[in-house]
Every structure is written in structure tokens, then in C-alpha cells.
Amino acid sequence: MSNHDRPMLTRGGFLVVSAMTLGAASAAGVAASWDATSARAADAPGRTRPGGGGQNGAGFVEAVLAAFRNHRLVAVGEGGAHGLQEHHDALAMLLADPRLPEVVNDVVVEFGNARYQATMDRFTAGEPVGNTDLRPVWRDTTQSPLGTWEEPVFEHVYRTVRAVNGTLAPDKRMRVLLGDPPIDWSKIEKRKDLEAFLVQRDAHAASVVEREVLRKGRRALICYGVGHVIRTSKQPALPPGLVSVIENQTGERVYTVASLVPLSGDPEGLARRLTGYPRRTVIPTSGTWLGDFNAGLLFPAVIRGSGSQPTNAMCGVALESVLDAGLYVGQPDSLTLSRENPAVYLDPGYWEELRRRNTLQGGIIDLDSYRQERSVRFTPQEVPPSLLC
After folding, report:
1. What angle in degrees, to the nearest 10, is found between the helix axes of 85-96 and 60-67?
2. How many helices (H) does the chain have, and how many strands (E)?
3. How would you write the pLDDT of the chain (389 residues) with one tens digit per residue?
């Protein structure tokens, strides 16, 4: 499978799937942000569905806690781009809420290599773990070097759980489950060696959820990019994402929420319609104007076949069929990105390894840009007019 044939979620945040490899799981990339909520809240002004009444929204933390009353699994999808600060601000509030450990046993994350699960267990239990032992958790995932997860918000998730656990009795502590396959980069010498791990990303994470959460009678908060959270099982042209795999294999329904980050140009006025809601409002999709919104204008899934024009497989799909709720994190021009400190790439050993990984994948990125300060301003995803449904 060539680099152009494999399905992937791009840094820009939309799914690109080759018609030649529809059975494979999504590969490297950036995804979207997402949150779930459900609690009492006043109708947002002017947010009515044609022929219907006002639509209720709820605060993020309250909505997630409410979702756990009826679901053992709640997935929060990061939209727009990995490292979206506003998404992680909401997530940090949730993780620090003292009520969360009463309904959550595990936090399943995309940005951690399962090979280091024992290290993470020691860390979140409050044991001393040096930085040289901790960093490989996020540095050595299958996404490197396209995604190094060096942005502070990802490490902050681990440190927040550790801090919260320090206030809890041992039997109440939350466990962080690392969802990315246990790749050992020292044994990856060819592109095909990496592909063997890339194609099992969602399947591996689903097996972790089934084995460590469901079989043990536990409940989990799943923190992944939106491409893994939206339901694709009803779109036969797309490979099943994490949530679809979990539901198909276990029969356990996952409550899904994703950050709402409109595309460049605000097609169909999504950003405009969200202005009446307070930030961190979760809006359900079932029976609402949001549920009627065209998912292809929020989560484009581009099918790129051999010799054919790319098409957006999500065009015409109602948002309520792929997502249970949307999290409003702010207007696109106000959003920001968490950025890594360029100094982390000055470590000569780490830098040489990143260069090796990049070369192995055909030089997919300009590594030199990693050593430069980058703007924190978020830029909405640009999508060609031909793919805008």
C-alpha cells in the first residue's frame, strides 16, 4: 500500500480515503475536537428549527456527567485540529471536576503508545516517573513525525489525571489507557513495517476498550480526534472509525460528542448559527437544527480513487446520523492552538530519530518548521469548492 493509497486523516482535519483501500483503518493525522453534555439550559436565542421550537443546550461538564447515567462509554472528539486549545480547556475542566471519578474509571487517549502502559499506570498512580521515561508515551506513537503530540495540552491530560488521583482512594483512581498500537520504532526499518501498525489503529483501540473497560464492568471517557469518533458504519465508502468498531464488535452504544469547528468560508452558515450559544455549550443532534446539518460541510470525507476525481462521501449525510451532540468552543476566528516549545527538537538524539522516521515515510513533512515558533492562531480548514456538497 503506497503513501497515496492509504486512508488518512490529514493535519487539516478531514478524512481522505482511497477507493483502493476502503477496508483499512485511518492513518496519521489531525482530527477534530468534541465534547458531550446534557443538562438543563435555556434555549439559545434564535436557534430554532424550521417549524419547531427552540433548541436546548447544556454546559460541557454537566452534559458529559449526564451522558454517563445511560452510557458506559462517552467519546469526546477533538475537531478542527489536534491541539485546539479551547477544546482542551473544556476537557481540562471535565477531568478536574470532582464528580468525574464517580462515573468514570478509565480515560482512553489517542496520543499515547500502548507499549508504555505500565509507565503510565505508575505515573497516574503518583509514583515517581522521570521525564526520559514519560516522554516516549507521546513521542513514539504511530503518528510520528507528522504528529509528535509535543503540544502541552496532551501532557497536561496525563498530569491532570495524576493530580486528581492524588486526592482519591486507590479504588477510586482513574486509569489512563493508551490507545495507539504498541509500536517499537527501533524495529521499524521500512514503510511496510509502519503500515502494519497504522492499519490497526482503530481496531487496537477498540480491543483495549473491550478488554480493559467493558469486560471488567468499567466505564470510560474516550478522547480521540473527530475522525475516529463520528459513526461511519452507515457510509459503506468509508472505513469504520473507532466508535463504529466498538459498537459493531461489542454491541455497546457509545455516546459521541465533537467540537464544532466550521470550515473556511462558513458553508451554510454554521458559525453564524452558533453565535447565540455560550462557549462550551453542548447541543444535541437528535431532532434539532444541528442534527439536520449536512455532515459533509463539517467533516468532509474525501474519497480519492485511482484515476478518478475526489468526492466528499459525507455530502448529504445528516449530522445526527454520525454524532450525538456537538460542542461549541467558539467562533473560528477566535480559536487558538496549543504549540510545542521548539526547543524540545534541539535534543540531537530525538531530532535524528525524527529525521529517520520522516525519511522512512518519504519526507512527508518539513521538519525544520518544528524548530520555529508558530502562530497560535487557528486557521479554518480550506476545502475545494468541488468538495463542498
Report:
1. 60
2. 13, 12
3. 333 333 333 333 445 443 223 223 332 222 222 233 333 232 233 333 332 333 466 899 999 999 999 999 999 999 999 999 999 999 999 999 999 999 999 999 999 999 999 999 999 999 999 999 999 999 999 999 999 999 999 999 999 999 999 999 999 999 999 999 999 999 999 999 999 999 999 999 999 999 999 999 999 999 999 999 999 867 778 889 999 999 999 999 999 999 999 999 999 999 999 999 999 999 999 999 999 999 999 999 888 766 678 889 999 999 999 999 999 999 999 999 999 999 999 999 999 999 999 999 999 999 999 999 999 999 999 999 989 98
The string of DSSP letters for 212-265 reads IIITTT--EEEEEEHHHHS--TT-TTS---HHHHHHHHH-PPEEEEEEE-PPTT
Instruction: Measure the CA angle with vertex 335, ends 330 and 337; round to 5°.
Output: 140
| Residue 227 dihedral angles phi and psi, to the nearest 5° | -60, -25
**C-alpha cell read off for 296:** 459533509
Please tell me the distance from the alpha carbon of residue 181 to that of residue 114, in angstroms, as a whole number: 6
Determine contact, residues 206/108, Cβ cutoff 8 Å. no
Q: Dihedrals φ, ψ of 229, to 5°?
A: -100, -35
Give 31-301+314-330+381-387's CATH code, choosing from 3.40.50, 3.80.10, 1.10.287, 1.10.3230: 3.40.50
Q: Are 268 and 294 in contact (CB under 8 A)?
A: yes
pTM here is 0.87
Rounded CA-CA distance 83/150 in Å is 9
